[in-house]
């Protein structure tokens, strides 16, 4: 009869006092996942089903959407939730499979820094987006002329 080997634990640190970050990370994954389903399907519905559907999506369509704070915040919320959700999932994988403590710390920090950088960059792009930069009325579509005047 063959015995099953005991599962390996990534690290066995004594239980610490304070907030249980793993519990909060687990809760965040569930709540953000539900919110992302609503945000993503709302995004897809508006972009693909309303109006002319996929044929209406071009630079002018995006520029028109980003003239309203509602769509800016919708897309930023989707960006923040998705990046933090993905980074938390990657952190969980690193914690499960990387056994060397120093390597694990470096990788978790790298994931956090990459997520923070992308969140900052994406937020700046959404809120500082200027569709009229380099606008040329002679070659612009009617929608762009309406947006940029």
From TrEMBL:
<feature type="transmembrane region" description="Helical">
    <location>
        <begin position="25"/>
        <end position="50"/>
    </location>
</feature>
<keyword id="KW-1133">Transmembrane helix</keyword>
<dbReference type="Pfam" id="PF01127">
    <property type="entry name" value="Sdh_cyt"/>
</dbReference>
<keyword id="KW-0472">Membrane</keyword>
<dbReference type="InterPro" id="IPR000701">
    <property type="entry name" value="SuccDH_FuR_B_TM-su"/>
</dbReference>
<keyword id="KW-0408">Iron</keyword>
<dbReference type="GO" id="GO:0016020">
    <property type="term" value="C:membrane"/>
</dbReference>
<keyword id="KW-0479">Metal-binding</keyword>
<feature type="transmembrane region" description="Helical">
    <location>
        <begin position="70"/>
        <end position="94"/>
    </location>
</feature>
<keyword id="KW-0349">Heme</keyword>
<keyword id="KW-0812">Transmembrane</keyword>
<protein>
    <submittedName>
        <fullName>Succinate dehydrogenase / fumarate reductase membrane anchor subunit</fullName>
    </submittedName>
</protein>
<dbReference type="InterPro" id="IPR034804">
    <property type="entry name" value="SQR/QFR_C/D"/>
</dbReference>
<dbReference type="GO" id="GO:0046872">
    <property type="term" value="F:metal ion binding"/>
</dbReference>
<feature type="transmembrane region" description="Helical">
    <location>
        <begin position="106"/>
        <end position="129"/>
    </location>
</feature>
